Amino acid sequence: MAEISLHRPYPASEVAAWDYTCDVAVIGFGATGASAAIEAADAGARVILFERNSGSGGASGLSGGEIYIGGGGGTDVQRAAGFSDSTEDFTAYLKAAGGPCVDEAKCEKYGREALDHFAWLKAQGVPYRGNYLPGKHIEPTDDSTLIWSGSEAAWPFCDVAKPAPRGHVIQHMGWGGGRPLVDILEASARASGVEVVADARAVALVADGARVVGAVVRIDNQNRFVRAAKGVVLATGGFAFNEAMRRKYCPETFKLSDPIGDKDDGAGIMLGLGAGGEAIHMEQFFTTCPWTMPESHANGVFVNAMGQRFINEDCYHGRVSRCAVDQPGGKVYLCLDNAHFIQPMDFARMTIAGTGDTWEEVEGELGMAAGTLSQTMAFYNEHARAGHDPLFHKRPPILTALDQGPFVALELNFETSYFSFFTLGGLHTSAQGEVLDRTGAPLPGLFAAGRCTSGLPAWGHGYSSGLSLADCTYFGRQAGRKAAAG
Amino acid sequence: MAEISLHRPYPASEVAAWDYTCDVAVIGFGATGASAAIEAADAGARVILFERNSGSGGASGLSGGEIYIGGGGGTDVQRAAGFSDSTEDFTAYLKAAGGPCVDEAKCEKYGREALDHFAWLKAQGVPYRGNYLPGKHIEPTDDSTLIWSGSEAAWPFCDVAKPAPRGHVIQHMGWGGGRPLVDILEASARASGVEVVADARAVALVADGARVVGAVVRIDNQNRFVRAAKGVVLATGGFAFNEAMRRKYCPETFKLSDPIGDKDDGAGIMLGLGAGGEAIHMEQFFTTCPWTMPESHANGVFVNAMGQRFINEDCYHGRVSRCAVDQPGGKVYLCLDNAHFIQPMDFARMTIAGTGDTWEEVEGELGMAAGTLSQTMAFYNEHARAGHDPLFHKRPPILTALDQGPFVALELNFETSYFSFFTLGGLHTSAQGEVLDRTGAPLPGLFAAGRCTSGLPAWGHGYSSGLSLADCTYFGRQAGRKAAAG
Lengths: 486, 486
What we know:
homodimer, alpha/beta, FAD/NAD(P)-binding domain, nine-stranded mixed beta sheet
């Protein structure tokens, strides 16, 4: 008997009996899997969704439930708040956010269809209050809809595309909108006739020659064989919790403390690789330290261990954090004056590393040479008072002189502060959700979306909140539809 | 009939007749392939070496012929020049050079055996004059042996391992010692009974079930079938000249102008992946701009487009260049004073971007805000005069104040200056040269070494001259020996 393995498909010829039979088997019940299942079922396919946990959720269920949407003149929410948003600008921003890792076909397709996707989300029952919440937020603390969730208004992105806020958040009081988002998608999937099998971990694909025709799932310590006549959709998330994969593919994450997700173990990536797929941009990761909380801290200035600035701090908090962990010395400092400092959140594990009545005193407390941090801050303050940042083009309103002593430098230490991270690399897929082999040809019967693929959020330095759930839900749908087409 | 493809092995059952029969087939005739072939033949195997060009060379033949060697108390050359070099220090440096991508087993094995490897090279006939050439050189301009070829004496490496020069260069007048190095290895291979088949491009592996048992080579437009009873060694180099692979795996290189190598097309990596191997650290690349020529320019100070320093310039020129291309703004500047400036080499395509009688004037010519570059240089000069670099720990003797006007800033533009590059990622192999699958198990019959693998030079920011040829020759030998053992 052939071996049951993540690393190579089990031969269909050796399956004695099929325990489940469907058209489309979806593996993983986060937002990606739910969206794929809905779309496949709505296209007429008989769909079974397998989830290793006892219920839906995945990393999506732990998220903020925010989806990056724009283009086509703007969503009703954007327009009501006075923002127009052309498809050209929206697509250009998506491409800039992908940086050197961009998948242009995915950006263009989503750029054209994001408004339709928003309508689809609403049609599934996802509620949106419809209002705009100004300011700099990681997630809304109330039930607002539209926030600035990326680096749209910050240099150099603002020179690439006309800025607009595009983070659309489910109506839900406070943080954690991902849980109700998945609940609603689950209800829609069940209403569409999707069968859900929980406590079922995928341990192998099944192939008939080169074609994927099913999967093996482990239920109650037994291998169960799933026949999927039209295809299998992988929706299993990234590999932030698989240390062996991180060591091989994404070793930079070992300087960070806090993987986030639903114990994402990279199983879907391994299944896809074993079937002949390929993984791309595996070194890419998202990270953030919640340094913009309290909100007045967004006015702070970051310096590295040499006392140099390295970023315009009006960028998305995750872009700032990702650039921070590129800095030598193992830490960076967030510099604040008395007008902006409030005790930081405990969970951020940021510490007060230096204080003083002058920046020279802070510099001394940090052990920096005289004329480093103090010169950086003097230069910054002089230009901020004139409304300019000649080095990094930070913009008002958070471009404010930090000259109301006493002063403080908060240490963000990569190893000990809360730098959450998850992985962005994964299977190479078409914009239709087909898993591609190394020649770019689709693998018959195999589809994937979400963080087990490389998608819209391809580049850690360009991440914006909502890009991953946009990718999960929209390209999850494409994968489900393509699978159902057989 | 099955398809002949780089991407999947051809079934041995479909081979009508074998055109060549041997124990070990080696693909590629650079230093890696030659070393593998010698070792396999010396172990008693019948070896045929296939090369797509009309003769030996590969990227090795275009190199400086410099090999990174140390440990064990030091080579005879190191000791004669007054340097001791413990295995612990040597190994620690190798590991630091591998950074987050390090393969510790390879570092430890080579760390223990580098002196034996040096003896082996000499036994093949590689001549070494045996002298030490002080200073900062890309390659010796005469026929000297030992040079500082990495960042050993520079921070932070000098704090990790006691520094010693370890670049051992073949006795050869001037640059280009790689060509005679490969010639000598070729002569040794032929003397050991290795058969060489040139103008033969590998287009597929041949497998019997999971075991690689040969290859298909294209000769005179005909497919020829090679039976290799004990194994195939891939020694085909990196993928710097394969734009599709770079786009998928190493897209950062698209900001650089000049791939170097022997049209390295990644064929061996694709063959290994197709056989079930995996590729790791594919985003890593070496790059350098020859900014230390003329040698007085090594005393220069680098700043980014914001006028900030970013590196201790006493690091290896390639490490400095690699950190340079991380800087935003598309370019960096090398700042020199009249005491150190000489017209740069034409081939470097560095341009004079600003001059002045003061650093303030240079700053203005570069379009930088007042108080940026001028402040950086004032701070640097003040501390250099006292023998310190508080920011980046650059050390004497090249830590010199740049205060003899007039002053000049040379522009190193990533796109238009000569930033040569080659790729460092490749097949995951054991320290014995076995190609490993995704579970870490060896693929029966398949071996690889050199730049189609991820080896000693695993991390672009830690590269040192001689690391790649050390990896090619030493791990080429391991692969050849292991293949011959069957």
